[in-house]
Amino acid sequence: MAFSHDKTLMTNNFLIIGLGNPGTGYAGNRHNVGFMVIDQIISDYGFSKPSLKFGGAVAEGMIDGEKTYAFKPLGYMNISGAPANEIAKFYKIPLKNIIAIHDDLDIAPGKLKVKRGGGSGGHNGLKSLDSHIGVDYLRVRIGIGHPGDKDMVSDYVLSNFRKEEITQIESIIKETSKHVGCLLKSDEAGFMNKVSLSVGT
User: Fold this and answer.
1) What is the CA radius of gyration of the chain?
2) CA–CA separation, 74 vs 56, rounded Å?
3) Three-class SS of residue 158?
4) How many other CB atoms are found less than 10 A from the CB of residue 15?
5) Other beta carbons within 10 Å of 191
6) In whole angstroms, how far apart are CA 106 and each of 44, 120, 131?
7) Domains along the sequence of the chain with CATH
8) What is the DSSP letter of 160?
9) 125-157 burial string, b = 16+ CB within 10 Å, else e?
10) Which residues are identified as catalytic?
11) How many CB atoms lie within 10 A of CB 25?
């Protein structure tokens, strides 16, 4: 069940959730690009050292004057929702102030899209989030490309980026972190424009 949205209990803080799988064996996988962005944000904005609580790793800091929590659920991808629900309830963060960063098969590597709400597109992490916190959070969809055959998807998302894709994905991770403050101000168009100009997409 999604957490309560009683406005009298909500804060103006923000929660950025990166989706991925825990463990060094998954660290470089396409499916872990959400974790990669969270690590970049923590580094770029001088967040606190991550603490293990709420079923994940959470760090806190300020982005453009806004108190923000950066969170990596440390269950596997398909059970990301319960830890996300727990931290959102604890810090009383409204759904409109939650941002999920995740990989997307339908977008080419080095590109991204932003949308609020919508379906999961078959993404197990999003399915879990949707079932626990609701659907009207902001999604930053980072492209990882598609293997071209649906039967290859499971192995593909758990593979690492190819050598020729590394520069593209590193750039999109850095630019997502650099301009994430736009999303806290509900300026999705500004975020997209700045990232696109920076990475040349």
Assistant:
1) 16
2) 4
3) coil
4) 22
5) 23
6) 28, 12, 22
7) 12-199 (3.40.50.1470)
8) B
9) bbbbbbebbbbebbbbbbbbbbbeeeeeeeebb
10) 31
11) 9
Strands 56-63 and 66-73: antiparallel
Are the beta carbons of 114 and 195 closer than 8 angstroms? no
Across the beta sheet with 98-104, the strand order is 51-53, 56-63, 66-73, 14-18, 98-104, 138-143, 112-116
Please, are residues 41 and 14 in contact by the beta-carbon 8 Å criterion? no
Residue 112's beta-bridge partner residues?
142
The tens-digit pLDDT sequence of the chain (201 residues) is 455 555 556 779 999 999 999 999 999 999 999 999 999 999 999 999 999 999 999 999 999 999 999 999 998 899 999 999 999 999 999 999 999 999 999 998 889 999 999 888 889 899 999 999 999 999 999 999 999 999 999 999 999 999 989 999 999 999 999 999 999 999 999 999 999 877 765
Please calculate the CA angle 156-41-189 and round it to the nearest 5 degrees: 80
Q: What are phi and psi of 46, to 5 degrees?
A: 60, 40
Token pair recorded at residue 173: 């991770």
